[in-house]
Specification:
Elements (H helix, E strand, L loop, with lengths): L10 E8 L3 H12 L4 E4 L8 H4 L3 E3 L6 H8 L1 H24 L5 E10 L5 H13 L5 E4 H8 L5 E11 L1 H14 L3 E3 L4 E7 L2 E6 L4 E9 L15 E10 L11 E5 L6 E4 L5 E8 L4 H6 L1 H15 L7 E11 L6 E4 L7 E5 L5 H16 L19
Parallel strand pairs: 1-2, 1-10, 2-7, 4-12, 10-17
Antiparallel strand pairs: 3-6, 4-6, 5-6, 8-9, 9-10, 11-14, 11-15, 12-13, 13-14, 16-17
Length: about 375
């Protein structure tokens, strides 16, 4: 863990990344690793904001199921998104294992039909995924109860998933880019920026000037403050982490989430705890969100007892966090017409933010190097809405 100093002088760089969370760190790592001179700033300390609040379930499945997404953007595009996420999970696992001090592990992903009316939908989803090469298993009620102690009628089990400590991964990535010569500055707030021909001039709240060839805004849900167009809506989610259990639950690493919306989700940890989240709502004010943490987490505990009657969880710590989500569950990476081609947005919104950020880092690097990433248009502000 490391605290990065406030920016106290003007500087020039190839790319300025605004946001020192997991998204900004992944992008800065990809760009600096390709030889670009990068600077990263954040108005908080590095790794705070949504990164510190993230429960970090890494899945290729997105919040919009494959069959529904295919109905919106066409099957070819939907498969492109799902396959890109599957590859990104594997890339995150490999990256995490190469970095020092990052708690990362492969896990199974269990997608639960907790209500009988969802079973048919999940069976159809399984058939579509299997027809296009995705590996999964269908689990009936008896096997769910015997294997996991879960009381639910049906589930899909997929092997390509993982979990990570996003705070530690952020700091490991920032340390690596700093060793490459990149500048990283905490407590440095972007006050304004202006795009010119051939450069972008950014000014901090302390009146320091940063001149760059390209600006990447990777500030989580706060990115929307720089756009007149409303491209996502902010929501709040709630979570708690349990006290350590006497033995590892479920017999190993597992991510669990519901087909219901909003959904309950949970994952195991290295030290035999369980992180549980859900009870999402439309609150967009931190003070109102935080006032609801105790009641929402008590409800999460009750729901866990109903779903997992044999798993006694005692809350050690509870919190709430704000996140943004888009209508189609997909992110936005790249320039917006409002600011021109040198100002890029990294809006890794929804439940797959970390997975999306791996893809987005490559999209932005390819764009800056004059290449076209396969997902560039799909994850752009001009993405297709039909076949």
């Amino acid at each position: 863990m490391h605290s990065y100093p406030r920016l106290r002088e003007d500087l020039d760089c190839d790319v300025l990344v605004v946001g020192a969370g997991i998204t900004g760190a992944l992008i800065a790592d990809a760009l600096s690793g390709d030889g670009l001179q990068v600077a990263v700033i954040d108005r908080r300390e590095a790794g705070w904001g949504s990164t510190a609040a993230s429960t970090a379930l890494l899945q290729y499945e997105i919040d919009v199921e494959l069959h529904e997404l295919a109905g919106r953007i066409g099957l070819r595009n939907a498969l492109l998104a799902y396959r890109a996420c599957e590859a990104a999970v594997k890339q995150l696992l490999a990256m995490g294992k190469r970095l020092r001090g990052v708690d990362v592990a492969r896990a199974g992903s269990l997608y639960l039909a907790t209500r009988a009316r969802h079973v048919g939908r999940l069976r159809d989803e399984a058939a579509l995924r299997r027809a296009h090469g995705f590996v999964l298993r269908e689990l009936e009620a008896a096997e769910l109860e015997q294997r996991y102690g879960i009381e639910a009628p049906f589930a899909l089990l997929t092997p390509t998933a993982a979990r990570v400590d996003p705070y530690r991964m952020t700091h490991a990535l920032l340390a690596r880019i700093a060793r490459r010569g990149a500048r990283v500055h905490g407590r440095t707030e972007l006050a304004a920026f202006e795009a010119h021909r051939g450069r972008v001039v950014a000014v901090t709240a302390d009146d320091r000037t940063i001149t760059c060839q390209h600006l990447v805004v990777a500030a989580g849900y706060e990115c929307q403050a720089h756009l007149d167009e409303r491209v996502a809506r902010n929501r709040s989610t709630y979570a708690f982490v349990s006290e350590p259990l006497e033995r590892r639950p479920f017999g190993g690493e597992l991510l669990l989430w519901e087909a219901a919306r909003p959904y309950l989700y949970l994952r195991t940890t290295t030290d035999d705890r369980v992180i549980v989240g859900g009870e999402d709502d439309g609150i967009d004010l931190p003070a109102r969100r935080d006032a609801k943490v105790e009641a929402r987490c008590a409800k999460l505990q009750r729901r866990c007892r109903e779903l997992l009657p044999g798993l006694a969880l005692r809350s050690a710590f509870a919190w709430g966090g704000t996140f943004a989500e888009t209508d189609d569950g997909l992110p936005f990476f790249g320039p917006h017409p409002q600011h021109g081609p040198r100002v890029h947005f990294a809006m890794a919104y929804g439940g797959n933010g970390i997975t999306y950020s791996v893809i987005g880092a490559r999209i932005l690097l390819d764009r800056l190097r004059g290449r076209t990433h396969p997902c560039a248009r799909l994850f752009s502000f001009a993405r297709p809405d039909s076949r």
